[in-house]
Design a protein that fits this description.
The chain has helices at residues 2-11, 25-41, 70-80, 95-98, 104-122, 134-149, 153-156, 158-175, 180-186, 188-204, 215-231, and strands at 49-53, 61-65, 89-93. With 241 residues, it is mainly α.
């Protein structure tokens, strides 16, 4: 996938990276909305978010951490005019996301999922004792914190339920369980951990974090909460390593 993106960037493919705002107004509006939503969630410059519009890519979007592919970093710098730092997050916005009008609430939910993944990748929330489910618990901590701290998303009520459901789905996809019941039978402790994380975030309004938040505050609060919840469990996720 990265090779295809880089090829489009090098040759200026007509269906690839777009530069003309007049001919692609909706795409630029969605890019700007994405970046605006980021600014409503994060208030520091620990890392920068770069969005590359590629409507010729028949997919929604995906996130690439900077330095993973130096050629892609250079392509982003070329087409956005901004330098890419070592901790930055690159968003490749394909046709489905760049050509579909979305509300601010809808885009915020997308951005929450993306930056939570990026933060948890750079600064893991759950330690190794949580086994392979740890990264998913870490994502739930950050995504749930931002969702329950956000003044609009938390009012919806279903926002944290979506985080709960997405986390279970992410864990299930790792092992290809035949059903939710099979997953629960084998990994009941994971479900307990996920539910406790989400329930605590609802009761504390996102661990009392205010958005826009500093990345360091999200990481510290997430690690403390995750550690406390796992320590309180009689059967911990370590059992499913």
């Amino acid at each position: 996938m990265h090779q295809n993106i880089k090829a489009m960037c090098r040759i200026g493919h007509v269906d690839g990276v777009i530069l003309d705002a007049e001919d692609h107004k909706l795409a630029f509006e969605m890019r700007n909305l994405y970046l605006e939503c980021v600014s409503h969630l994060l208030c520091d410059d620990t890392f920068r978010v770069h969005v590359l519009l590629v409507p010729g890519m028949w997919t929604d979007h995906f996130v690439v951490p900077a330095t993973e592919d130096p050629d892609l970093d250079q392509a982003v710098e070329r087409f956005t005019g901004n330098s890419v730092g070592p901790l930055d997050m690159i968003v490749i916005m394909g046709k489905n996301l760049s050509t579909t009008a979305r509300t601010e609430d809808e885009m915020t939910e997308i951005v929450v999922a993306d930056i939570s993944e990026h933060i948890n990748r750079l600064w893991p929330i759950a330690d190794r004792s949580s086994g392979w489910v740890g990264p998913h618990l870490g994502w739930a901590c950050i995504a749930g914190m931002l969702t329950t701290a956000h003044p609009i998303l938390k009012e919806h009520g279903h926002g944290i339920d979506q985080i709960r459901a997405k986390t279970v789905s992410r864990v299930m996809s790792n092992r290809r369980y035949k059903s939710v019941q099979d997953f629960r039978d084998e990994n009941g402790c994971s479900v307990v951990a996920i539910n406790r994380i989400c329930d605590r975030l609802v009761s504390t309004n996102g661990e009392y974090i205010a958005v826009p938040a500093r990345v360091v505050d999200l990481v510290e609060a997430g690690r403390t909460m995750c550690c406390e919840i796992i320590d309180e469990m009689s059967v911990r996720p370590i059992g499913i390593v």
